[in-house]
Amino acid sequence: MIDGFAGTILMPGSEEYPAAATAYGVLGSPALVARPSSAADIALAIGYARAHGLPLSVRSGGHTLFSTNDGGMVLDLRAIHDVELLGNDLVRVGGGAVWGDVARALQPHGLALSSGDTYSVGVGGLTLGGGIGWMVRQHGLAFDSLREAEVVLPSGDIVTASATVEPELFWALRGGGGNFGVVTRFTFQAHPLPGVVAGSITVDPARLADTLRGWRDVMRHSPEELNSTVIAMPAFGPEMPAATQVLVCFGGNDVDAAMKAIRPLLALPGVTGNDVAPKAYVDVLEEPELPPAEIRLVDHNGFARDVDDGLISRLTTAHEAFGAAVLMVRYLRGAFNRVPADATALAYRDAEAFVVSAAFLPPDAPAEAERRIHDGWAALAGDVTGEYGNFSMHPDATTITRIYPPATVERLRAAKRRYDPENVLAFNHNIVP
Question: How does strand 73-76 pair with strand 56-59?
Fold first, then answer.
């Protein structure tokens, strides 16, 4: 079908097609799914899609709705999933690998990369969007450890991007998503990590504000090896009551040093238990369940420059007003802040924390219920700025201006005009040239 293509083509009706056409629980209906085996295959597939006017979705792990479509081509990179150590702790990772496989491959060598929280999230999508993971305070975002990328441009050209070769493309790839090319292989600087001390600390959910204040005070004086997130979960029926947890991950296997850092969190008011223990880094990565299809998700996120008492008060008030909602606050201060704001396309480097709210509404909830949640989040505009594209599930025409400040948007548009002037790669948080 695609002359010279050495990979696999899946058509509607084939046994593997339904799974290949599904992204994050949503079944698409692409005209075909192309699974390339090389950068040359990707160039041929892009050329075919362009010649036949097919919308093009690129998939690494499939955790985004962008990775399928109706009537177009899905470019599924799963066959390009190798993880190869190159020496000097450099590691080359295929664009179709998932982070759990990377963690498992590096573990015997006492190495790791800061990724996301989920085993099956794709290396490609998460890295191009940022990568706020369990070592964000030690080593920054996932793409802060990126040293080089092999990229197939929409023109079909295969280039290498780094700080010294195609530097503007390298800048745009780090936070600009899949707007500029298809990355076939990433070369990262891995970090020594013999193990972690990690787990969850359970806290009385009625004391969320107290928990957040105490957690913030501890984290401000903690070593950067200690990463932590507070998650407040609503009740989901009598068998799943409301719960608040302080998740911790100390990057290192020195149990005494880890517990010295974690112990103040165990002493927070309202703590009812914990399961903190030494473990392998790969075992920290989770595999969360998808919400039921009949639930309507209303999500928001942003970066808080300062987790002061005023923000905590307004945040907990809004969270309570949202009803069935999850609140997540992740501490960032450390290596994340030491990267200049204009060094990558993710610009909010002055943040102390990353805040996420996800409210769950029944499918028949009136529009007013959703509008109330949007208005409640808007009231936090003075405290929380920007948006993290990897957690923006329902994009609209204004998403780009929320993810990036104006100067970054203009620089990204210039890069888009240079590398994808016809907007071939439009299934993403699209930067229109």
Answer: parallel
Residue type, 15: E
According to DSSP H, which parts of 221-352 are helical?
255-266, 309-322
Contact status, residue 7 vs residue 79, Cβ threshold 8 Å = yes
Give the model confidence (pLDDT) of 369-393 as tens digits: 899 999 999 989 899 999 999 988 7
Q: pTM for the full model?
A: 0.94
Phi and psi at 103, nearest 5°, equal -60, -40
User: Cα separation of 147 and 186, whole Å?
Assistant: 8
Residues 190, 193, 194, 196, CA torsion sign: negative
Whether residue 288 has pLDDT greater than 80: no
In angstroms, the Cα distances linking 341 to 59, 218, 408 are: 28, 26, 10
Cα–Cα distance measured from residue 354 to residue 358, given in angstroms and rounded to the nearest whole number: 13
Counted residue by residue, the chain has a size of: 433
Q: What angle do CA 367, 368, 372 make, to 5 degrees?
A: 120
374 SS3 class: helix
Is residue 196 within a helix (H) or strand (E), and if so which, with residue range?
A: strand 196-203
First-to-last alpha carbon distance for the chain, in angstroms, is 31
Cα gap 415→166, rounded to integer Å: 11
Q: Which tokens go with 77?
A: 């990179």
User: Could you give the residue ranges of the DSSP H alpha helices within 150-254?
Assistant: 167-176, 208-220
Number of helices followed by number of strands (H, E) in the chain: 12, 22
Q: Sign of dihedral through CA atoms 408, 411, 413, 419?
A: negative
Tell me if 134 sits within 8 A of 114, measured CB to CB.
yes
